[in-house]
Amino acid sequence: MTEDLSPAERYAASRIRAAEEATALHPFRAMYDFDLDPFQIEACEALEAGKGVLVAAPTGSGKTIVGEFAVHLALTQGGKCFYTTPIKALSNQKYQDLVKRYGADKVGLLTGDNSVNSDAPVVVMTTEVLRNMLYAGSQSLLGLAYVVMDEVHYLSDRFRGAVWEEVIIHLPESVTLVSLSATVSNAEEFGDWLDTVRGDTEVIVSEHRPVPLWQHVLAGRKMYDLFEESDDGRGGRREVNPDLLRMARMENQKTYNPRDRRKGKMVREADRERERRQRTRIWTPGRPEVIERLDSAGLLPAITFIFSRAGCEAAVQQCLYAGLRLNDEDARQKVREIVEERTASIPGEDLHVLGYYEWLEGLERGIAAHHAGMLPTFKEVVEELFVKGLVKAVFATETLALGINMPARSVVLEKLVKWNGEQHADITPGEYTQLTGRAGRRGIDVEGHAAVLWQRGMDPQALAGLAGTRTYPLRSSFKPSYNMAVNLVQQFGRHRSRELLETSFAQFQADKSVVGISKQVQRNEEGLEGYQQGMTCHLGDFEEYAAMRRGLKDRETELAKQGAAQRRAAAADSLEKLKVGDVIHVPTGKFAGLALVLDPGVPAGRTNGHRRGFEHHDGPRPLVLTAERQVKRLAEIDFPVPVEALERMRIPKSFNPRSPQSRRDLASQLRTKAGHIAPERHRKGRAAAADDREIARLRTALRAHPCHGCDEREDHARWAERYYRLQRDTRQLEQRIEGRTNTIARTFDRIYALLTELDYLRGDEATEHGKRLARLYGELDLLASECLRDGVWEGLSPAELAACVSALVYEARQSDDAVAPKVPGGAAKEALGEMVRIWGRLDALEEDHRINQTEGVGQREPDLGFAWAVYMWASGKGLDEVLREAEMPAGDFVRWCKQVIDVLGQVAAAAPASSGGSTVAKNARKAVDAVLRGVVAYSSVG
């Protein structure tokens, strides 16, 4: 080709080649056996030019190449690079990848569990580790040139997202930031913020998937394409498959009813038979059937997302019972060799408890589950076998979609609804994109496939909307915390800290949203002028007359509310009089009817004028057994009127609210004892408005007003109502503008005031107590600090201390009101009780300072649900006994133990010195050793 060029053109081309070969990108590209995509080259060139980059691209598109180029640049230039990830599993995986490329001497790892070669020029770590290093002023930051933040869209996570913003804001100016994100719709907005806080930042957005994705619906015996291409002269357009729309219509049609004949709706026998045959072709295929179908179509390996741990385990069992075998004998042998090698360090008695042999049988057949309840070692084995093609069908919860490099040829979604911790909710377009993004392996598959199982009531148009929305907005979840406030003030003083917080992405987004609201206020003010003209009356001041009408309506509403409040107060008083064994009639709500009081739910005492626990918020909450055998904790909302005991019953000491038989027997006695008693009907009294003097005065004044006699009075009144409604909306918008301006700084001011009151901060300095709090990271940082300050944990044994610390980290997946959690006795029980009392004092103090937990700030109540399990484990009990007592999967147990270990380490560092007579630091270190054993100690990195 060069022969066709003129000498001048050949010379120019050689100059360009020579310039390219002189860059750091040229040898980096040669390290890969495929050429880089345009967006990767653009981002790498920007990095080499000294700019920060934000790369937003789909899952599986190879955006981590840009992060690896930052590693390459750091090593080339003799600097350091920190590669941060949101989860430990991803850190471990990235560490292994970089070790293969650059050698173990140049790469280190820092997570809560592992510390490997931490002084290396390249260190992979979780984002929290880097945040802690920044606050501690770690020497490891010297020479840091690049920081890669993988999965930076995690900053929208409401529990952990603030950490990403803390790191971005506090990194030294000399550090170049590489931000890797999923495809978000407001990448430019995020890039503008990065440009503001980090300097020159290039935004590179790619929505191109290197492996095309085909969307399907599995129904009956067929796999239907979700879209079909249509050419209407304006280029190809994707329309929803008409077959799917027809199936949805058919399912929603009313089935034939013989009684319709009487209404004149004659249905021919042939039509009915055709409809019946058509309906039998639509069903939801079973899990083994789906895997067999994908196998026969050459669409394995596949990940099936099931939003339930139990569902994932059940799916594996169903496939085993169905006789599915996806591996030949050679593959089975390889699986067994790898599994035995990876689990060699686990004692035989633990393997039996962990369900090892059932798990191995599934793996040998090429089938496995993957969820957070599994032992980390088991999960890592599944990931390794899947990547090697030795496991071909994985049933996983959505946690698999969070960054782990485990692509498949196909992805199956069983349902489009999942439990979000509070209710069953539809998955969002962002979640759908993240899940289906796993389909299609670059360099292996020509195309990827995503299939959704047909479910009764499915709307193909809604599914098409999910599949067609490629991006979702990135929303900041940043909120100041106690630990953050102390660390900031300690380093920068109060005024500078306030300024730093105002540079957060949260405040940046809030300030931008104010612009649109201000424009709406201006439009409303123009509308108010027009409405004012419309309500003008020739007989008098209609604005005055309208104000009187509104005053009358407000007074009537106020009296109605007072009446309702009095009825609620009377109901609350009646609830406080209930006793164990009272038979009552629940007047309304989901559990209306006969019920037996098991626990009145009335607070035993008050702290600083506040009731303890849940009663502080909701008043008495009796725990009852209904006549339908359900044990439920009711709230005041279930009792709009006062309640009285209809009868009394003795509750057997042997009664166990968790036992179905026990509930059935007692409910039967309840129905026998009081089923015949009719509840007394509550009679309404005379309305307060009938005797109110203010209402009588306003009605008289209205009739005397000149505008009362106007023929167009109601027309004017309609304009007046519109005027006042728009005026009210305008005031609310103005309040929103005021509320969004400096929101983060105002929250910081409240936290600062509370910490000053507790003597953690004085002016621009942290006190000794404040310096202790600065070393405690976690949701209950202030509670942990107060426990150390008050000596609550002094004299506890290591196992007892572990039990107390567990209350700071553990949160039950679902609250269980029926039974109080089991806790260790003696000193540990007293210490846990004191922790709850301290939390009550802090809770009241937060309320005084208007620090609101619903906004993500403040201290939640400590959860004692893991105290007994970790106490047993730290006391040396066997895994079988502990898991049986804890009623918890091994993976959850290990995860909570590791979080307890993490906080125990912080407590050891923050506790008073042992030379002063304190035992906490020494026992915290002993507790770490006691918990870090057996399954908890198995490390994923050698």
Indicate the topology.
Blueprint: H1 7-21, H2 25-29, H3 38-48, E1 52-56, H4 64-77, E2 80-85, H5 88-102, E3 107-110, E4 115-116, E5 122-126, H6 127-136, E6 144-149, H7 162-170, E7 176-181, H8 187-198, E8 201-205, E9 213-219, E10 222-225, E11 227-231, E12 236-240, H9 242-252, H10 269-280, H11 287-296, E13 302-305, H12 309-321, H13 329-342, H14 348-353, H15 356-364, E14 367-370, H16 376-387, E15 393-396, E16 410-413, E17 417-419, E18 424-426, H17 429-436, E19 448-453, H18 460-468, H19 482-501, H20 505-534, H21 542-576, E20 582-586, E21 593-599, E22 606-607, E23 610-611, H22 615-618, E24 623-626, E25 631-633, E26 647-648, H23 660-674, H24 693-704, H25 713-740, H26 743-757, E27 761-762, E28 765-766, H27 768-773, H28 781-789, H29 798-809, H30 826-848, H31 867-874, H32 879-886, H33 890-910, H34 920-931
Parallel strand pairs: 1-7, 1-8, 2-5, 2-6, 3-5, 6-7, 9-19, 13-15, 13-16, 14-15, 16-19
Antiparallel strand pairs: 3-4, 9-10, 11-12, 17-18, 20-21, 20-26, 21-24, 22-23, 24-25, 27-28
Helix pairs in contact: 3-4, 6-7, 17-18, 19-26, 20-25, 21-24, 29-30, 29-31, 29-33, 29-34, 31-32, 33-34
Overview of this protein structure:
The chain has 942 residues and is α/β, with parallel strands linked by helices. It is built from 34 helices and 28 strands. The strands form seven sheets. It has an eight-stranded mixed beta sheet with strand order 4-3-5-2-6-7-1-8, sandwiched between helices. A seven-stranded mixed beta sheet has the order 10-9-19-16-13-15-14, with helices on both faces. The protein has a five-stranded antiparallel beta sheet with strand order 25-24-21-20-26, with helices on one face. Helix 29 (798-809) packs across helix 34 (920-931).
